[in-house]
Amino acid sequence: MINLETPKKFRAFIGRANQVADHFLRANARKYDLAEHAYPKELDMLATLIDGMSDSGQGQGAGAAGVRRDENGDDDGKVKNGTNMSSLLSIIEMCWGDVGLLLSMPRQGLGNSAIASVATDEQLERYKGTWASMAITESGCGSDSAALTTTAVKDGDHYVLNGEKIFVTSGERSDSVVVWATLDKSLGRAAIKSFLVSKDTPGIRVERLEHKLGIRSSDTATIILDNCRVHEENLLGNAEIDPKQGFAGAMATFDNTRPLVAGMAVGCARASLELTRELLNEAGVGIDYDKPLQTQSYAAATFVAMEADWEAALLLTLESAWLADNRRPNSMEASMAKAKAGRVGNEITLRCVELAGSLGYSENELLEKWSRDSKILDIFEGTQQIQQLIVARRLLGLTSSELK
Ligand SMILES: Cc1cc2nc3c(=O)[nH]c(=O)nc-3n(C[C@H](O)[C@H](O)[C@H](O)COP(=O)(O)OP(=O)(O)OC[C@H]3O[C@@H](n4cnc5c(N)ncnc54)[C@H](O)[C@@H]3O)c2cc1C
């Protein structure tokens, strides 16, 4: 194992995040896994605490909201660990506690990440304190977000939105939704813009909630936009359609959020590894890092191999957040991190179920739950295959139309 030293300024913060994850998230994990769609009221107090810490500068939120690239970064060439890194470290701890509950954290939605990434300074101020979910996916548009059909038609100083969005995380509980829509389908990707739609706007409604394999404490909604009028000021960022910029504006959100989703997979897998190590110890299976693996038991050798994979995922994830903090391009690294962490997160959590035998499969422990929760982390914010496609395009210098 490579033991990276945690920067001093993060040590106390990580310790606090871990305690919070233990007391609020891990402690309620099974309760809300069983009570799907029930509102996890325990999170209200925690969210208020997190808001207070962010306002006083003692913390960076639970994760999602804190991903704006720092334009005032050091100009003296010094490298730094900043907002992205602290958000990532916090998310890893929180997802060690529970992924579904982290995704349910008030005011820390994926839409908040979009606001942080693409909103103007004025919009950032205006939308402070909102809990925003993110609505891109439609029944005919998942991996290929450019295929979306939801429209935004200009009418005076308003836009009129029409369409149906599916799989919106926190779609019911959030108080606003960042809706992706096209201003003009014939102009392709460049015409896709995002709009902040408050849930009390006439014409937006939650149609239904999904029942799911994992992250059952997180609500996943279908949202209908039926002649929903929003003021032009609600268009996030720049209204101009610039074919040269293409999808870049919208994609900036993903460069910031993919390392965080990778962090979720890292945190969840660490929880599985820690519990499995305890259970193996109790069963008398020792793990000896100084002895060749082929001389140890299958369980011990498998465990060590999983730890190595986990650490590779962690390192890639840290790198992608560090690049963002230092205002360097990170699209490829963010996709590498998401692909690696998503895949090994799935493999580790399922293998831990196997190693723990009947205990692993039973609801007495959380191992079976973690294997279910982990699956989504290799799907949303871009599937495994899509991340590999992005990495391949970057390495080969090909565009999205050249390599599909
Ligand atoms: C619980 C949950 C929460 C979600 N939360 C949100 C949310 O908050 N907001 C939101 O907008 N969306 C959300 N989603 C949607 C999610 O982002 C999409 O499900 C995901 O992007 C995949 O899209 P799809 O389901 O349409 O699959 P498809 O795009 O139809 O893909 C199906 C399969 O084909 C593969 N595939 C597709 N294209 C290619 C290609 N070119 N090459 C190789 N393989 C390919 C995919 O990897 C996948 O395995 C959520 C989904 C779930 C299940």
Walk me through the structure.
With 404 residues, this protein is an alpha+beta fold. The chain has 13 helices and seven strands. The chain has helices at residues 8-25, 29-34, 42-55, 83-97, 99-103, 110-118, 121-126, 248-282, 298-325, 331-355, 357-361, 367-375, 384-396, and strands spanning 132-135, 151-155, 158-169, 176-182, 192-198, 204-209, 220-231. Strand 2 (151-155) and strand 3 (158-169) form a beta hairpin. The protein is globular. The two termini are 37 Å apart. Bound molecules: flavin-adenine dinucleotide.
What is the average per-residue confidence, as pLDDT, rounded to a whole number? 91
Q: Identify low-pLDDT runs.
A: none
- So what's the oligomer here? single chain
Query: What's the main sheet like?
Result: 4 strands, antiparallel
Bound ligand species: flavin-adenine dinucleotide
